[in-house]
């Protein structure tokens, strides 16, 4: 029954964010009537929403109608640096959910049903929605925070001089790497839309002199000049054929001692329910919305080989589960 009502729980979180519930309650204790007045909502309906959030572990009701925010609920406060509000907004947006109504069609045909529903692919549609594109970029940044903290200490960046983050978005991941390795230079490579918030990220981190931004299309080319090419949460967005194209472009500019470092979940050959988490739901999301997939080690080896690359190692990243580091070199 919890699984059946999961969609309703997600929309409850969406309403809490849209009504700014967590910000209005703040760090203390407030009545539902006070929150309703500031949110422009009805007191009784707000009480019902706050009690539903309490039942989900996001609020605590101390006396009848008086609430405070739990540590989990605080992640829905957009003013916090560790907030997940954009991530929640993205995955509860009608645009992100419409194709899921036709999951069975994707399973039957293998087609990307998002394209059928909206008449264009996910990223082309997103490009036409500037506000949602900003939410998407922020969501990807929020989904990268743990990896940005763990990655610099989980891989030997000291043997490289320049790292290009292919599909690096707003620069959150590369900023973490460069901050921990002062001798390293960097390039964030993405579409113009993907890079929209990157200048502000580099400015905040004091990295504008060590990191450049390059706009382009990784299906056409990847900029040369780096000895490490980093791809996080890029490979899983695309079909095998498209992945081979992206990796081939990396291979074409890779120096003899260079490396390609892919940061993605690596599926076991048989599902391990103790570690599966949300990875397999994410895999279905790739199926219906963009046509990509999560992959096993053998499947990563296959696309790497087709791109002229050889897998060197696969290393788990425990501080940022379920991600692994997939290191490759020229074949």
TL;DR of this structure?
It holds the Pfam family Dimerisation. The protein has 331 residues and is of the alpha/beta class.
Question: Any overview of this molecule?
Answer:
This protein has 331 residues and is of the alpha/beta class. The protein has helices at residues 6-18, 21-25, 32-39, 43-55, 85-91, 94-97, 103-109, 113-118, 122-127, 130-142, 145-150, 172-180, 198-205, 240-252, 279-290, 297-306, and strands spanning 30-31, 59-63, 66-69, 162-166, 185-190, 211-215, 228-232, 259-267, 295-296, 309-316, 323-330. Strands 4, 5, 6, 7, 8, 9, 10 and 11 form an eight-stranded mixed sheet that branches. Strand 2 (59-63) and strand 3 (66-69) form a beta hairpin. Helix 1 crosses helix 4 (43-55), helix 3 packs across helix 4 (43-55) and helix 5 (85-91) crosses helix 10 (130-142).
Task: Describe the secondary structure blueprint for this structure.
Layout: H1 6-18, H2 21-25, E1 30-31, H3 32-39, H4 43-55, E2 59-63, E3 66-69, H5 85-91, H6 94-97, H7 103-109, H8 113-118, H9 122-127, H10 130-142, H11 145-150, E4 162-166, H12 172-180, E5 185-190, H13 198-205, E6 211-215, E7 228-232, H14 240-252, E8 259-267, H15 279-290, E9 295-296, H16 297-306, E10 309-316, E11 323-330
Parallel strand pairs: 4-5, 4-7, 5-6, 7-8, 8-9
Antiparallel strand pairs: 1-3, 2-3, 8-11, 10-11
Helix pairs in contact: 1-4, 3-4, 5-10
């Amino acid at each position: 029954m919890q699984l059946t009502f999961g969609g309703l729980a997600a929309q409850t979180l969406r309403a809490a964010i849209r009504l700014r519930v967590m910000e209005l309650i703040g760090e203390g204790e407030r009545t539902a009537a006070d929150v309703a007045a500031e949110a422009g909502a009805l007191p009784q309906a707000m009480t019902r929403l706050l009690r539903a959030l309490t039942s989900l572990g996001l609020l605590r009701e101390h006396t009848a109608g008086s609430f405070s925010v739990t540590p989990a609920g605080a992640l829905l406060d957009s003013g916090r640096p560790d907030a997940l509000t954009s991530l929640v907004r993205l995955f509860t947006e009608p645009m992100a959910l419409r194709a899921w109504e036709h999951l069975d069609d994707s399973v039957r045909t293998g087609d990307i049903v998002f394209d059928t529903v909206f008449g264009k692919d996910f990223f082309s549609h997103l490009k036409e929605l500037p506000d949602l594109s900003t939410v998407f970029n922020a969501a990807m940044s929020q989904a990268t925070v743990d990896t940005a903290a763990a990655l610099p200490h989980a891989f030997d960046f000291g043997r490289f001089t320049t790292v290009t983050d292919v599909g690096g978005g707003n620069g959150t991941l590369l900023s973490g790497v460069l901050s921990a390795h002062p001798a390293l230079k960097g390039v964030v490579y993405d579409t113009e839309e993907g890079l929209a918030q990157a200048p502000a990220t580099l400015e905040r981190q004091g990295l504008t002199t060590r990191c450049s931004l390059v706009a382009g299309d990784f299906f056409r080319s990847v900029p040369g000049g780096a000895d490490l090419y980093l791809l996080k949460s890029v490979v899983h967005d695309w079909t095998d054929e498209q992945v081979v194209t992206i990796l081939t472009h990396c291979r074409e500019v890779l120096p003899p001692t260079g490396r390609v470092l892919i940061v993605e979940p690596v599926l076991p050959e048989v599902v391990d329910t103790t570690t599966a988490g949300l990875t397999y739901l994410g895999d279905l999301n790739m199926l219906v919305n963009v046509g990509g997939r999560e992959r096993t080690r053998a499947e990563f080896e296959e696309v790497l080989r087709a791109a002229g690359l050889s897998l060197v190692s696969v290393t788990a990243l425990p501080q940022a589960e379920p991600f692994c580091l997939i290191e490759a070199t020229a074949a």
